[in-house]
Write a structure and sequence with these properties.
The complex is a heterotrimer of chains A (237), B (296) and C (346).
Chain A: E1 2-11, E2 14-24, E3 29-33, H1 40-48, E4 55-60, E5 63-64, H2 70-76, E6 78-80, H3 93-101, H4 108-122, H5 137-150, E7 155-159, H6 167-182, E8 186-190, H7 194-200, E9 203-208, E10 211-217, H8 218-223, H9 225-236
Parallel strand pairs in A: 3-8, 3-9, 6-7, 7-8
Antiparallel strand pairs in A: 1-2, 1-4, 4-5, 9-10
Helix pairs in contact in A: 3-4, 3-5, 4-5
Chain B: H1 2-32, H2 39-57, H3 61-84, H4 91-113, E1 128-131, E2 134-137, H5 138-160, H6 162-172, H7 174-179, H8 184-206, H9 218-231, H10 236-256, H11 262-276
Helix pairs in contact in B: 1-5, 1-8, 1-9, 1-10, 2-3, 2-4, 2-8, 3-8, 5-6, 5-10, 9-10, 9-11, 10-11
Chain C: H1 33-49, H2 53-78, H3 86-104, H4 108-130, H5 136-155, H6 157-160, E1 166-167, H7 182-203, H8 207-217, H9 219-224, H10 229-255, E2 257-258, H11 260-263, H12 266-280, H13 287-306, H14 313-328, H15 332-345
Antiparallel strand pairs in C: 1-2
Helix pairs in contact in C: 1-7, 2-7, 2-10, 2-12, 2-13, 3-4, 3-5, 3-10, 3-12, 4-10, 7-10, 8-10, 12-13, 12-14, 12-15, 13-14
The chains are: A alpha/beta (237), B mainly alpha (296), C mainly alpha (346).
């Protein structure tokens, strides 16, 4: 579904992402992990079109999309959330989702009905009329996922959707991501919490200093000594 | 060739005046990230204050400047405390409020003077000296010299003094500057005060050249914006050279294309720069950083 | 249309506490009739003041500027783009209607259409480069464009009459859009206001309207939701500019003397739209209209009463209003009202 070939991003003198290649198959849940500054968010922005790679290419469903704008990728079925949640603060929760639902439903009434369904599904139905500015962090994260789902993606890119949540909220979020996946949406996510990664992701990709250092089954990757050194070593220091 | 040189010199001298006005505007822009639409009107107010000393006490504008500068400094501090400070981080409201200030200043002066034109012609006003084929107005030449000194002096002060370093820190990265313990409000007050004080200096130099009218500031504010855009955010030398460049473009376009279209021509230049190189010709900072996110 | 995600197994369905969802309060179910009633009430003064030439004139101006501010609000309030270039579209509309009438004898009623088209086209040309700018740079660039328009209007004097302006002779008649009875002008500009409010209402119940709001709130988030931000902004600008040009055409026929200083004045045109909208409440349907209802009569009153005592006095008051509004009334009258209601409910 998603093929990344030799993607590299250089900022003045710094190579943030270095020759990264991997592919994601339809239906997978793939986690990207790595220490801070490993280039995870840069990689994400290369996949969503917010940044253009210095070299390398991205293919989506067999189609080269390297130069495509973020909105064009969204139209092709790539949804995303942001590391720092970006709810449309002045709009109500319902309207936030509505904005996504309009992608496939031109009429307000249809889009609104779809938005209500999705809000119900992420557990925010009772917050529909509340301005996004008054939602809690956990609610804002779920709202972002809801807005992304409303665009009916085939692939959803989640950037640290669990960061800063308490254990109950993390549990809710994990359930939500599972349900999203069960609906047939492929999930690629950046995650810091290894426990969370282990709990639902079969496949894990590890980045360290811009390079892909491991890609495989969660159990074996997380047991890999190089990964432990890169990830936990960096954490310990 | 002689005509061309004369036009070039005229442009350069006009550019000196633009530089003088723009350096203060750019200081506030660079440090506070505020576009002060009222800056032209502040220059106008400074001119009327200068005129007040001229008419009432018979002070020559060049002498009155020692009184005008501190008065304008306090005036600038007032603008900061009453208008800009409460609206920090709200660019749309600041744009709006400084525009309101512009209208208030213009019309207050209009109401006080009843729209009668005034001028301060000193003997120097008419003094023109010739260098070969070039005719140079003495007062205009002086304003170019002073603009050069101010630009150089301010750039040096920003580079070498402790306060200057703090201000430069704020220009480059406000959050980091705050972390390093820079007293932001104090620096902001100082910068807006200095910006208005520089308008006071400009007023003394402009006094023999321009006749006074409440709308005088309009002649400066748009060129000054162009200068700031050309020169780059917060850069003193950028504003200086940008000013000279805008002056020269205006003079050349005025002669070779059409004097009534000269403004349109450098507006186009300036819009082109805004789009092609938003960090300005000499600025290193991205103008995109000053994002407008309205809280409508 | 099933867009919901199937739950993870029926087993946990009973465990979930699913309250009956309140599917009301969404934008689709908001009634329109109170807005239409409001418009009718606002038009009532035409009947009440029809015999008073002074006040009916002010009323006509109030409606005109209510419509113009509401037009500006479409791109500035909904789309978040603080344009100071609307004087350009206003001027384009005024010149197009006046010139077609004077030179080609085309009725202003028909002239409004090309005026709106031209306004929309010019706005698209202006928007394409300037929408790449953010923050104060957008405001500066659009303000500069307004000055460029003024310079061009002065320069091409064989067309615009240059600084002398254009004079439209008084030949009363419905086809000429020139009336002896002043209340007819108020009715005309009142209908213009109604039109712009209805366009705003329709927008805020449409995809384009929500896309404008999304772009205003967060452009990156909007694009991630598949919204072509630049195209949405340009479309919003074109609608806003076409309506502004229409208002400019009506203005030309109402005052019958147009010249560059009047049409491209920032404080009387470009920034005035912003002032009225801000005082009333930006990004709301009624804000710009209420702002005009409050400010335009006050301004005319002050202009009349202060002109002898204090030349420019009404501008001082307006300028102070702008500063105070920016400081204390960021969301305007309508915003303050909405906050009050919310507090009361909570």
């Amino acid at each position: 579904m998603l093929e990344i070939a030799g993607i590299t991003k250089k900022f003045a003198g710094l190579t943030a992402v270095n020759q990264v290649s991997f592919a994601v198959d339809a239906g997978e849940i793939v986690s990207i992990i790595g220490p801070n500054g490993a280039g995870k968010s840069t990689l994400f922005n290369l996949l969503t079109g917010n940044l253009q790679p210095t070299i390398g290419s991205v293919r989506y469903c067999g189609k080269p999309i390297t130069g495509y704008s973020p909105e064009r990728r969204a139209r092709l079925g790539m949804g995303r959330t942001f590391q720092i949640a970006k709810p449309l603060l002045a709009l109500s929760a319902l309207e936030n989702v509505l904005v996504g639902a309009f992608l496939h439903q031109r009429r307000l009434a249809d889009a609104e009905a779809a938005a209500f369904d999705i809000l119900d599904d992420v557990g925010l139905a009772d917050r529909a009329a509340i301005p996004a500015s008054e939602l809690t962090l956990s609610e804002r994260r779920r709202l972002e996922i809801a807005r992304a789902i409303a665009t009916r993606p085939n692939l959803i890119l989640l950037d640290e959707v669990m960061a800063g949540l308490n254990p109950t909220e993390v549990h809710l979020a994990v359930e939500l991501v599972r349900r999203v996946n069960q609906r047939g949406i492929t999930v690629l996510l950046i995650e810091h919490n290894l426990k969370v990664v282990r709990s639902f992701s079969r496949r894990v990709i590890v980045l360290d200093r811009g390079k892909l250092i491991a890609d495989g089954q969660a159990e074996s990757v997380l047991a890999d000594t190089a990964v432990i050194e890169a990830y936990l070593g960096a954490r310990r220091s | 060739m002689d005509t061309f040189l004369n036009i070039l010199v005229a442009g350069l001298l006009l550019g000196g005046i633009y530089s003088l006005v723009s350096i203060g505007l750019n200081l506030v822009f660079g440090v506070l990230r505020v576009v002060n639409f009222a800056h032209g009107a502040v220059v106008m107010v400074a001119l009327y204050v200068t005129y007040f000393f001229y008419a009432v006490f018979g002070l020559d504008p060049y002498i009155a400047v020692v009184l005008v500068v501190p008065i304008m400094f306090v005036f600038g501090m007032g603008i900061y405390w009453f208008i800009l400070r409460p609206l920090q981080d709200e660019p749309m409201m600041q744009t709006f409020a400084t525009f309101g200030l512009l209208i208030v200043l213009q019309n207050t002066v209009l109401a006080i003077t009843r729209g009668e034109p005034h001028s301060m012609n000193t003997e120097l006003s008419r003094l023109v000296f010739s260098i070969g084929p070039l005719n140079v107005s003495a007062v205009r030449a002086l304003s170019l010299v002073v603009a050069t000194i101010i630009a150089g002096g301010l750039a040096a002060a920003l580079r070498y003094t402790l306060t200057g370093k703090a201000i430069r820190g704020l220009i480059q990265d406000r959050p980091v500057g705050v972390l390093m313990g820079i007293n932001v409000r104090q620096m902001y007050t100082l910068c807006v005060g200095m910006s208005a004080a520089l308008a006071g200096v400009a007023a003394a130099l402009l006094a023999p050249i321009y006749s006074l009218s409440p709308g005088l500031g309009d002649d400066f504010i748009l060129p000054a914006f162009a200068v700031v855009v050309l020169g780059g955010l917060g850069s003193t030398m950028g504003a200086y050279f940008g000013g000279l460049l805008v002056g020269i473009i205006e003079a050349l376009a005025g002669f070779y294309i059409d004097p009534t279209l000269k403004q349109a021509i450098w507006f186009l230049v300036f819009i082109a720069v805004l789009i092609l190189r938003p960090s300005g010709l000499m600025g290193r900072l991205g103008a995109e950083e000053v994002g407008l996110r309205g809280n409508a | 249309m099933d867009t919901a995600i199937p739950r993870a197994g029926e087993a946990d369905a009973p465990a979930r506490q699913t309250p009956t969802i309140q599917r009301t309060g969404g934008p689709a179910s908001r009634p329109v009739w109170p807005h239409l009633l409001g418009l009718l009430v606002l038009l009532l003064p035409i009947y009440l003041l029809r015999g008073n030439p002074f006040w009916i004139g002010i009323l006509a101006f109030t409606y005109l500027f209510a419509g113009l501010a509401a037009s500006w609000n479409i791109i500035a309030g909904f789309g978040g783009q603080f344009s100071l270039a609307h004087g350009v579209f206003f001027g384009v509309g005024a010149y197009t209607v006046a010139l077609l009438y004077l030179r080609a004898g085309i009725s202003p009623w028909l002239g409004l259409l090309p005026a709106m088209l031209l306004g929309a086209v010019i706005s698209a040309l202006i928007s394409w480069p300037t929408f790449r700018l953010r923050g104060p740079f957008f405001a500066i660039a659009t303000m500069a464009l307004n000055e460029v328009a003024a310079v061009f209007a002065n320069y091409f004097d064989h067309l615009t009459g240059g600084p002398r302006g254009l004079l439209i002779p008084f030949r009363a008649g419905l086809a000429n859009m020139i009336f002896v009875e002043r209340w007819k002008y108020a009715l005309l500009t009142g209908m213009f206001m109604v039109l712009v409010v209805i366009v705003s209402l329709v927008l805020l119940r449409s995809r384009l309207g929500y896309y404008l709001l999304a772009v205003r709130e967060d452009e990156d988030a909007a694009r991630a939701a598949g919204i072509p931000a630049l195209r949405v902004k340009i479309l919003g600008m074109m609608i806003s500019a076409a309506l502004t040009a229409m208002g400019g055409g009506l203005f030309a026929m109402f005052v019958r003397v147009i010249d560059p200083p009047t049409l491209f004045s920032l404080q009387d045109v470009g920034v005035k739209f912003a002032l009225l909208t801000l005082i009333g409440g930006m990004g709301t349907i009624w804000g710009p209209v209420l702002g005009a209802m409050l400010i335009v009569p006050l301004e005319n009153f002050l202009r009349t009463w202060l002109s002898d005592v204090l030349p420019g006095g009404h501008y001082i008051v307006l300028g102070l209003f702008m500063i105070l509004a920016a400081r204390f009334m960021k969301r305007g009258v309508v915003g303050a009202y909405l906050t009050l209601i919310r507090r009361r409910r909570a």
